Amino acid sequence: MKRIRLGVLFSYIILFIFAIITVFPFIYMILGGLMSFQETTSIPPTLVPHHFEWSNYAKVFARAPFGRYFFNTVLTASVTTIVSLFNSLLGAFAMVNLRFKGKGLIQMVLLSLLMVPGEAIIFTNYNTIAHMGLLNTYVGLVLPFLTSIFYMYYLQSYFGSISDTIYKAAMIDGASDWDYIWKILVPMSKGGLFTVGLLSFISGWNSFLWPLLVTNEDTMRLLNNGLSAFASDAGSETQLQLAAATLTVLPILILYLIFRKQIIKGVVRNDLKG
């Protein structure tokens, strides 16, 4: 019994250490956004500000069009989430429930495309967007991300755990594929759909390289690109960068804290058991 208790205690100590390592950067980011420039650059580093500089957040909005960055990020992340979720839903349904010629070949092609890293095709996408005249536009920002093979295959595995007899029974009762999707499949798969939607939104929110390539105007930049506004040839205003980073990260943290149960349910698929 003593060995078991010592083992459990040791496990908790290890978990606590890793929790501190994981959480500390976020805590320091929040505290650093309330420090002065001297405190953020001091050696040894200052962990707690002597005076809370709340004016740093006002300076963030005064120094750069941060409100515009927020609008652009929310708009592009929302559009890519809604459209990619809709496309992934229909694609996963077709691969699981429909029977058509060449289905196996299509699945093999899609799986092969899933293995291609995004970095390998980003400049091809850029050339396409440039030739279409979509640079510095919202369409150019979201177009390459309106569908996702990964999300489709995630939902395909999710839908595959639903008994095929439910679909057959719905067809016998005279329901169309559209009726089955919205009246049966979607309500039974809320956890998986919510997980895909949240992952897509986080991906769009954290987007950095693609907006950097297809936009060169401040009015079209996203939040992560806007952090560069607080750096100059004279150096970086680290206290403002930390304040801006806090404003960028907090919405995602709040979303996670609110919907963490739904995320876990979507991953383990508890709502499909039994």
- Helical/strand content category: mainly alpha
First and last CA, distance: 36 Å
The main pleated sheet reads as:
2 strands, antiparallel
The Rg value, from CA coordinates, equals 24 Å
Write down the overall mean pLDDT: 85
Share of residues in strands: under 5%
Write down the secondary-structure element order. HHHHHHHHHHHHHEEH
Q: What level of helicity do the residues show?
A: over 70%
Number of helices: 14
Total count of strands = 2
Strand arrangement within the widest β-sheet reads 1-2
Shape: globular
Low-confidence stretches: 270-274
Summarize the structure.
The protein is built from 14 helices and 2 strands; from the N terminus they run H-H-H-H-H-H-H-H-H-H-H-H-H-E-E-H. With 274 residues, the protein is mainly α. A hairpin with a 2-residue loop joins strand 1 and strand 2 (235-236).
Q: How would you characterize this protein structure?
A:
Belongs to the binding-protein-dependent transport system permease family. The chain crosses the membrane at residues 7-31, 69-93, 105-123, 135-154, 193-213, 240-259. This is Sugar ABC transporter permease. This protein is mostly helical and 274 residues long. The chain has 14 helices and two strands; from the N terminus they run H-H-H-H-H-H-H-H-H-H-H-H-H-E-E-H. It has helices at residues 2-32, 37-40, 55-63, 66-97, 103-114, 122-131, 138-142, 149-160, 164-172, 177-188, 190-205, 209-214, 223-226, 238-268, and strands at residues 231-232, 235-236. A two-stranded antiparallel ribbon has the order 1-2. Helix 3 (55-63) crosses helix 14. The longest helix has 32 residues, at 66-97. The relative contact order is 0.14.
